[in-house]
Design goal:
The structure is a single chain. This protein has helices at 17-26, 46-52, 66-79, 99-107, 131-148, 164-169, 181-191, 214-236; strands at residues 7-13, 34-39, 56-59, 84-87, 113-117, 160-163, 196-200. It is α/β, with parallel strands linked by helices and 258 residues long. The relative contact order is 0.16. It is globular and about 50 Å long. The protein contains 8 helices and 7 strands, in the order E-H-E-H-E-H-E-H-E-H-E-H-H-E-H. The chain has a single domain, classed as Spore Coat Polysaccharide Biosynthesis Protein SpsA, Chain A, CATH 3.90.550.
Length: 258
């Protein structure tokens, strides 16, 4: 706990047997109340290892997608009584030791959302981020900053902390089950007026780090641009956009996700 707030870490997992224990060992267990892993139908021994480590483990019978995995993560965390939820990839691309800092910023009420940015500072390329990914990240981030009038260093990090209020407020059920879920969720946070902060996060890219194909990367990039355009349309009041509408056709708390 931090400031009497219950901290839960969620791990959206897919084939992370090789890095799960290292990630788990570096989580600050003195302040984390519970760890929940959601496995998206891995074909390796991720589930067996997760249970052996004593992690609460939820398994998707079929691969449902990265966004659907997160929906389950947040449902489980809220049902477990989380006040602060930290989403950490178990592929050891992000440093688990930053959980304390990220959670504290939420628990103390400084921010509603905290991002672990790989772009703040100069460590992304040194940490092994492929140049094409770095260039695409910078381009899409600059474009989105112009579109939604913010000044984030990156919109594409998979290391995030949220207050309970954020997860209960955002219409997450309207979001994609694919990778663009991350971007939709972040723009929703801005749309509904939540305070978003960043801290510098060293990154490590290796053969075990999660990655998506070039084709899916292009699909994600197009989705990011579409989400930015939807944000602008919703803000203008020209028409309602479902992901920015609390009363959309799939409205309801993420705790009701099935």
């Amino acid at each position: 706990m931090i400031n009497s707030k219950r901290v839960i870490v969620v791990l959206p997992a897919y084939n992370c047997e090789a890095t799960l224990k290292k990630t788990f060992d570096e989580i600050p267990h003195d302040i984390v109340d519970e760890i929940i892993l959601v496995d998206d139908a891995s074909i390796d021994r991720t589930v067996i290892l997760s249970k052996r480590l004593g992690i609460k483990t939820v398994v998707h019978e079929a691969n449902m997608g990265y966004g659907a995995n997160q929906k389950t993560c947040y449902r489980e965390a809220l049902q477990a009584g989380a006040d602060v939820v930290v989403m950490l990839h178990p592929d050891y691309q992000y440093d688990p030791r930053l959980i304390t800092a990220m959670s504290t910023l939420i628990a103390e009420g400084i921010y509603d959302v905290t991002l672990g940015s790989r772009i703040l500072g100069v460590g992304a390329l040194q940490g092994g981020m492929p140049f094409y990914k770095y260039a695409a990240n910078r381009f899409l981030t600059a474009l989105e900053n112009m579109m939604i009038r913010q000044k984030l260093s990156e919109y594409h990090t998979g290391y995030r902390a949220f207050s309970r209020k954020v997860l209960e407020t955002l219409p997450l059920l309207e979001n994609s089950d694919d990778f663009v879920f991350d971007n939709q969720m972040l723009l929703q946070a801005f749309y509904f007026g939540f305070k978003v902060g960043e801290i510098n996060c060293p990154t490590v890219y290796n053969k075990e780090s999660s990655s998506i194909s070039f084709v899916r990367s292009v699909k994600y990039g197009v989705g990011v641009i579409i989400t930015g355009l939807q944000f602008m349309i919703a803000k203008s009041g020209f028409r309602k956009i479902s992901i920015f509408d609390k009363h959309g056709k799939k409205c309801g708390s993420i705790s009701e996700y099935k």
